Amino acid sequence: MKKNRYLFLLLALLLVGLLAVGCGGTKEPPQGDTIKIGFLGAKTGGHAHYGIETLKGMQMAVEDINSAGGVNGKKLEIVEGDHGSSSEAANVTQKLITQKVSAIVGDPTTGITKAAAQICQPAKVVLLSAGAVGPDVVEIGDYIYRDTLLDAVAAPAVTRYLAEELNWKKVALVTTTGLSYSEGLTNIFKPALADYGIDRG
Predict the structure, then answer these.
(1) What kind and span of H or E run contains 82?
(2) Quick one: residue 171, left, alpha or beta (phi over 0 = left, psi -120 to 50 = alpha)?
(3) Distance in angstroms (rounded) separating the CA atoms of residues 74 and 59
(4) What are residue 74's DSSP bridge partners?
(5) According to the model, what pLDDT value does residue 30 have?
C-alpha cells in the first residue's frame, strides 16, 4: 500500500513539475537550473503526521525525478512551508509564492486548500492538494488541482461495496460533533446507507 501511494505521489509530482513549466498566462517560466516546488503542510501541531508523511513522499519522488534527469532538463527543488495551525496557512502560502515557487503541493484538508487556492490562482501558481475531498476546490480556478476523489463520490462507492460485496446489513456511523469534516461526511453517508438498505443501528 505504501509503495502504491509513493508511486502515485511520484506521478503527481512529475505532473506538477510539467504544469509548472507549461502553464500559460503571464507568469514567466522558471529561470535557472531548478524548478521550485513548495510544500504546504503541518510539520508541527495536531496534523503534523499528515504533513510529515507528505513531505517524505515528496522528497523521495523529487530524488527519483532528479536522478532520472529532472523535468525538461531542470531539477526539482522543494521549498518547505510549515503551518502549525490553520490560521498560519495563508501566510505560509504567500511566503512560498514570494520565494518564487512554480507550484505548491499540499494541504490535505479542504478548508486550508480553499484558502491557499484563493492566493495561488491569481498568482498563477499551480496548487495540488494531497487530499482535499470536499466540494468547491478545483472550481476556484484552472491552477487548482487535487489527487483524490470527492467524498460525495467515494462514500456512496464504499457503501455500495459494503452492501453488495460484503453483504453488510448494519453499521455504526460515528460522528465527531463540531468537526465540519466529520459532520459533512456523515451527511453523505446517511442517505447512501439508506439507499443500499444498511441499518445505522
Answers:
(1) strand 75-82
(2) beta
(3) 16
(4) 71
(5) 55
Backbone angles phi, psi at 175, to 5 degrees: -125, 135
Give the whole-angstrom CA distance, residue 107 versus residue 129. 5
pLDDT digits (tens, 9 = 90+) for 117-167: 999 999 999 999 878 888 899 999 999 998 888 999 999 999 999 999 999
Report the C-alpha gap between 185 and 128 in whole angstroms.
Answer: 22
Q: Is the dihedral of CA 62, 66, 70, 76 positive or negative?
A: positive
* One-letter amino acid of 148: T
- The torsion region of residue 96 among left (phi > 0), alpha (psi -120 to 50) and beta comes to alpha
Which residue, among 99, 108, 124, has the nearest Cα to 40 in the 3D structure? 108
Reduce the DSSP state of residue 9 to 3 states and report it. helix
The count of residues in the chain is: 201
Mapped onto helix, strand or coil, the DSSP state of residue 191 is: helix
Topology of domain 2-146, per CATH? Answer: Rossmann fold (3.40.50)
Residue type, 26: T
Closest CA to 96 of 70, 127, 141, 130: 127
CA nearest to 171, candidates 150, 154, 157, 192 = 192
**How many whole angstroms separate alpha carbon 113 and alpha carbon 137?**
7
Parse the chain into domains and list their residue ranges.
2-146, 151-195
Q: Which amino acid is at 50?
A: Y
Residue whose entry in the numeric block shows the C-alpha cell 457503501? 159
